[in-house]
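Saturday, quiet lab. Running sequence design on the C-alpha cells for the scaffold JK sent over.
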C-alpha cells in the first residue's frame, strides 16, 4: 500500500494529472481506505510542492500543475469521501467560502467533502467571496455555522471584518463561526472571536459534529 501512496504523492508533486487520477482509482479498486489515500498520497503531494516552492526549487508554473494534479486526484476520491452523506430534510446547513482576495481552493474542497460526509448541507460560496456575499448568504440560509477559509497572511484579517459585521447586524447570536487555512491558528481564532478553528478537514468535521451534538 505504501508504494502506491508514494506513487500518488509523486504524481501530484510532478503535476501528472492523468496519472494521479488513475493511480487513485487503482488504489480505491484495491480497497485502500479513502482517507489514507487522501492524507498520505494526495495531500502529502501538495505539501511537498509547498515545501519545494518555499525552498525556491519550484516556481509558480510547477505549483499550478501540482494543484491541477491534486484536483484530478480528487475526482475519483471525492464521491468516496462523501459516502454516508445524509442530506435531505433535517440536514444542518453550513455556509462556507474563501475570503476576498484569496483564490486557494484545495483546502476548502477537502473540508467541504468531509462536512458533506458528516451529513451537513453545504452552501458553497466558492473563492474570493466578498463580505457582503457572506452576510447575504447568512441572512438567506440561516445556517448553524459559517465556515471561512483564508490561506495567506494578507487575506486572513478579512475573517475579523466578517465577524465584526455579523455582530453589527445582529446575526451572530445563533451562528457559530469556523475558521481555517494554513496561516490561521487557535490563538488567531480566539483573537478574532471565532468559535471554532480547524487545523485540518478532519478536525473541522469533528468540531462541526460536536456543535450539533453529533
Ligand atoms: C497550491 C498553492 C497555490 C495554487 C492554488 C491552487 C488552488 N486551486 O487552490 C496557486 C499556484 C494558484 C497559488 C497561487 C498563489 N499563492 Co499559493 N500556495 C499554494 C500552496 C503550495 C498550497 C496550498 C494548499 O492548497 N495546501 C493544501 C491544502 C489541503 O491545505 P490547506 O489549504 O492548509 O487546508 C487544510 C487546512 O488548512 C484546513 N482548512 C482549510 N480551509 C479551511 C476552512 C475551515 C472553515 C476550516 C475549519 C479548516 C480549513 O483543512 C484543509 C485540509 O486539511 C501554499 C503553501 C502552503 N504550505 O500552504 C501556497 C501559499 C498559500 N501561496 C502563497 C502565495 C504568495 C500565492 C500567490 C500570491 C503567488 C503569486 N505570486 O501569484 C498566489 C495568490 C493567488 C490568490 N490571490 O489567492 C503563499 C502565501 C504567503 C502568505 N502571504 O501568507 C503560500 C503560503 C506559499 C509561500 N510559502 O509563499 N498558490
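Result came back. Writing it out in full:
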Amino acid at each position: 500500500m505504501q508504494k502506491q501512496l508514494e506513487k500518488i504523492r509523486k504524481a501530484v508533486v510532478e503535476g501528472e494529472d492523468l496519472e494521479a487520477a488513475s493511480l487513485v482509482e487503482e488504489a480505491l479498486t484495491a480497497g485502500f481506505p479513502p482517507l489514507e489515500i487522501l492524507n498520505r498520497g494526495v495531500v502529502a503531494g501538495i505539501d511537498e510542492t509547498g515545501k519545494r516552492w518555499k525552498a525556491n526549487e519550484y516556481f509558480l508554473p510547477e505549483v499550478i500543475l501540482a494543484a491541477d494534479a491534486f484536483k484530478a486526484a480528487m475526482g475519483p476520491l471525492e464521491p468516496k469521501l462523501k459516502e454516508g452523506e445524509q442530506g435531505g430534510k433535517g440536514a444542518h446547513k453550513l455556509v462556507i467560502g474563501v475570503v476576498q482576495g484569496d483564490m486557494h481552493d484545495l483546502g476548502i474542497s477537502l473540508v467541504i467533502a468531509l462536512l458533506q460526509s458528516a451529513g451537513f448541507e453545504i452552501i458553497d460560496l466558492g473563492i474570493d467571496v466578498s463580505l457582503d456575499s457572506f452576510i447575504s448568504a447568512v441572512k438567506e440560509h440561516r445556517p448553524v455555522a459559517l465556515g471561512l477559509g483564508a490561506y495567506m497572511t494578507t487575506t486572513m484579517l478579512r475573517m475579523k471584518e466578517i465577524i465584526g459585521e455579523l455582530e453589527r447586524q445582529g446575526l451572530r447570536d445563533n451562528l457559530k463561526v469556523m475558521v481555517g487555512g494554513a496561516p490561521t491558528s487557535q490563538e488567531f481564532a480566539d483573537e478574532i472571536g471565532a468559535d471554532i478553528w480547524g487545523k485540518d478537514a478532519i478536525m473541522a468535521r469533528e468540531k462541526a459534529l460536536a456543535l450539533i451534538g453529533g
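Notes for JK: The two ends are 32 Å apart (CA to CA). The mean pLDDT is 93. Ask whether to fix the surface positions before the next round.
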